[in-house]
Structure prediction request, 228 residues.
Amino acid sequence: SYELTQPPSVSVSPGQTARITCSADALPKQYAYWYQQKPGQAPVLVIYKDSERPSGIPERFSGSSSGTTVTLTISGVQAEDEADYYCQSADSSGRRVFGGGTKLTVL
Amino acid sequence: QVQLQESGPGLVKPSGTLSLTCAVSGGSISSSNWWSWVRQPPGKGLEWIGEIYHSGSTNYNPSLKSRVTISVDKSKNQFSLKLSSVTAADTAVYYCAREGFGELSDAFDIWGQGTMVTVSS
Prediction:
């Protein structure tokens, strides 16, 4: 079955750049989406269609894609960015699939 | 601004049926959006359950398809989830979410706050 693989955790110091990867196990890769989830809260969309940023999301959040891997980059990480991040895509039948999530820790 | 609000029992007995409703406010459920259910077991990741369009068309996660029914009530501007034959593995926070339209199509752009459902006798 179609799977998305994320690293369980990423740690960065404030002001540094955090990169979170999401690898699909098959081609073709559909568009990817990224969500931020803070404890006790619902997820929030931060990137859509691999690299587009919804209105209201800070410019320090960006996305990129290469082959079957997409990357969420947070430049100039702030303490408020500490959260779980999930990538999401779809398989060839349209089934929505989420990655296992990455816990971003701001040291 | 569209808002979503889940409601339903917080406790369901094993082998019973989990029933939740998502009320849509600030917009119409008959807009050009699909509407989804997503769940998250305690301490774990997100799992898509299925989606519905206002016409009644549905798509389900194959892993849950035999137990899931999603329906829409346009008169009440809401959609619902039924999950049958539940076990402890179905204990989770259940979210309803809107899938965007146009540029945001296929993105879950609006989420409800989530509701915790525990399966226990």
Remarks:
- The mean pLDDT of chain A is 94.
- Chain A touches chain B at residues 30-31, 33, 35, 41-45, 48-49, 52, 54, 86, 88, 90, 93-101 (CB under 8 Å).
- The beta strands of chain A are 4-5, 9-12, 18-24, 33-37, 44-47, 61-66, 69-74, 83-90, 96-98, 102-106.
- Chain A has no helices and ten strands.
